[in-house]
Amino acid sequence: MRTLMLEEALASARQVALQLAADEDRYAALGTALRALPPQGAVTIARGSSDHAAAYFAYLVMSRTGQLVTSLPMSLLTLYKAPLAKQRLLAVSISQSGRSPDLIEPMQMFEAAGATTVALVNDTTSPLAEAVDWALPLHAGPEKSVAATKSFICGLVAGARLAAHWGEHADLLQGLQTLPAALEDACKQDWSSAVEPLRTASKLMVIGRGPGLAIAQEAALKFKETCAIQAEAFSGAEVKHGPMALVDENYPMLVFALRGPAQQSLIDLATEMRGRGAQVLLAAPADVPGRDLTLSTAPQEDLDPITAIQSFYLLVEAVARARGANPDQPRHLSKVTTTR
Predict the structure, then answer these.
(1) What is the pLDDT of residue 4?
(2) DSSP 153-168
(3) For residue 270, what are the contacts with CB-CB under 8 A and spacing of at least 6?
(4) Residue 33 is part of a domain; what is its CATH number?
């Protein structure tokens, strides 16, 4: 059985290439505008997988430019009508459908208050795209599987493009140009050894840190929705503040040890958890001894989370099928979720 989820995940490199070939002038113009009149703050507005893409964007902006970025609890505006200061802000929303009321209403409020509003959105005819100053297409193409894959990866890329143009980060801009080839390589990594350990799992921790935490969050969500595994994501630093008490013999853990300052601490954590009896799956680049799963590296270190989630999507699709589930049609879920 070749699922839509697998087909769409494998199409990510092609769709990313389409995105990178388009809209460069608009990204550059937005970056110029943000530098000319720097916002006094920035907020992201998103749900589910898109919120994980927003967290990755926020990490890039904060680590590279020093600009604080807050994930907005939308209910502050849609339900509690909080009198938030909205002027001179940058509000960035990420969405596949662009149709959920609790995304659209806050963006309309920020727009009316004079904030700079941006939507990274796959459907450019959606109400969200129409509500903002800058609608930047994800170019992910139609996505029919309920579990988002290529639209999430395109959301990560769009966020990286925005961060790169805002801060004039030449290394990121250059790395993005050859990212499609790295995504193709990530699709060739063999993670099949992880299918059997996860086939019967009922619970799971997914660990990341730094820009990789957003990927751990996305992986945990995908385990929930496609495999019905109670998966929770934690920072490699936070896992020792309580969650570690859950770890017993054969407790499954997936650790993403991407390149960067946090890598060694994640490798050390994997070793420690193995010593406690946990069943650890360590995903790390080819130069890391003791890894269980090999991570393809991206052209630039901060882009590694994108290639990591590419390989992961192929794994979680296989795990879902091994558990007898249809990842295209998870229980109780639909492609477009409308919340207020």
Answers:
(1) 95
(2) HHHHHHHHHHHHHHHT
(3) 253, 255, 257, 280, 282, 290
(4) 3.40.50.10490
pTM equals 0.95
- Region 82-92: mean pLDDT is 92
Residues 51, 85 share a domain: yes
Say if strands 230-235 and 279-285 run parallel, antiparallel, or are unpaired.
unpaired
What's the domain range around 200?
185-322
Same-domain status, 135 and 43: yes
- pLDDT recorded at residue 242: 72
Q: Is 11 exposed, middle or buried (0-12, 13-18, 19+ CB in 10 A)?
A: middle
Q: What is the mean pLDDT of residues 100-122?
A: 94
Q: Where are the beta strands (DSSP E) in the chain?
A: 41-45, 69-71, 89-95, 116-121, 134-137, 203-208, 230-235, 252-256, 279-285, 293-295
Residue 270 identity:
A
| pLDDT higher than 90, residue 194 | yes
Answer yes or no: do 21 and 131 share one domain: yes
Q: Tell how strand 279-285 and strand 134-137 pair up.
A: unpaired
Report phi then psi at 324, rounded to 5. Answer: 80, 20
pLDDT tens, position by position, 52-80: 999 999 999 999 999 999 999 988 988 88
Torsion angle (degrees, nearest 10) of CA 106, 108, 109, 112 = 160
pLDDT digits over 175-193, tens only?
999 999 999 999 999 999 9
